Amino acid sequence: MSITYRLAKLSDLPTLDNILHQAVIALKQQGVNQWQNHSVTKQDLELAIERQSIVSQPYVWELNNQIIGFALLQSTDPYYRQLKSGKFSFHGDYFAIHRVMVSDKVIGKRVTKQMFSDIQQIAHSQDIQILRIDTHPDNSKMQHIIVRENFKYCGTTIVGDGGLRLVYEKNI
Question: What SUPFAM superfamilies does the record tag this protein with (predicted)?
């Protein structure tokens, strides 16, 4: 299984919208109130692609020229400026990893393992040594992935919709 990645393009939006829809349904079925009520939309993905820059880098992952995953790397996150509880162990430039999603066609095939490995390579290539990520307290699947990838729990933050998120970081 040879998975590649590249920066996202506007022409990827129909596929990304489909993967987003799959993710929203999966979270709902798991009883996770994350990405529900249109808190993440096709328009959010479109905006991320349109505003692509050194501070906001949307990536897609492909298998056999088919998009199977997406993640957004941002060099700043306003919700990480002041944690509700806890503190960061590492200071300096970082990437915040957001909108991690994979196609339901590849669930269980460890695609996120490859994605996080690639994200580390991307960070290294841009002299970034710190990765940060957050997730909903009920999103046990994402928490498992985050811990598997050796991120350490730092505390909590409150995001734009008022929801509590568990925050993790990793020094690479």
Answer: Acyl-CoA N-acyltransferases (Nat)
